[in-house]
Amino acid sequence: MSQIPAMSPVLAQGQEKESNIMTKLLGVIAVAAVALAVAPAQAAKHAMGGCSGANLEKTETAIENMADGDSKFVAQKEIAAAQDSLLNGKMGACGAHLNKAMLATMGK
Q1: pLDDT tier for residue 44 given thresholds of 50, 70 and 90
Q2: 8 Å CB contact between 63 and 75
Q3: Alpha helices (H) in 1-108, listed in sequence order
Q4: What are phi and psi of 88, to 5 degrees?
Q5: 3-state DSSP call for residue 3?
């Protein structure tokens, strides 16, 4: 702090404003982090209609009809991960893997 008593309130106000801005910034970052963590699972659920036996079967059929190559390999890995997630009751992860497998069948 300053040795001049008249300067102390000015410095305290500046530090208080800086602290308030940092608190708000940290709050915004926390909200964004939560939104980014939840968004992929929700997008997969809505895009594919969720993880279900019917959706897995459709995707597996599409993978079988693919030409051999990197995309087919990626799709097979994702469908295996989706099946594992389904068996372990992780529906969000299953939907995300199923979505990735379907995107691989489309060549994207």
Answers
A1: very low
A2: yes
A3: 8-48, 53-64, 70-87, 91-105
A4: -90, 5
A5: coil
Q: What dihedral angle (degrees, nearest 10) is formed by the CA atoms of 93, 97, 103, 105?
A: -160
The alpha carbon dihedral of 96, 64, 54, 83 has a sign of negative
b/e map of 65-89 (b: 16 or more CB within 10 Å)? Answer: ebeeeebbebbbebbebbbebbeee
- pLDDT of 38 above 90: no
Q: How many other C-beta atoms can be found within 10 angstroms of the C-beta atom of residue 58? A: 16
The C-alpha atoms of residue 98 and residue 74 are separated, in whole angstroms, by 11
> Rounded CA gap, 1 and 7, in Å?
9
pTM of this prediction?
0.53
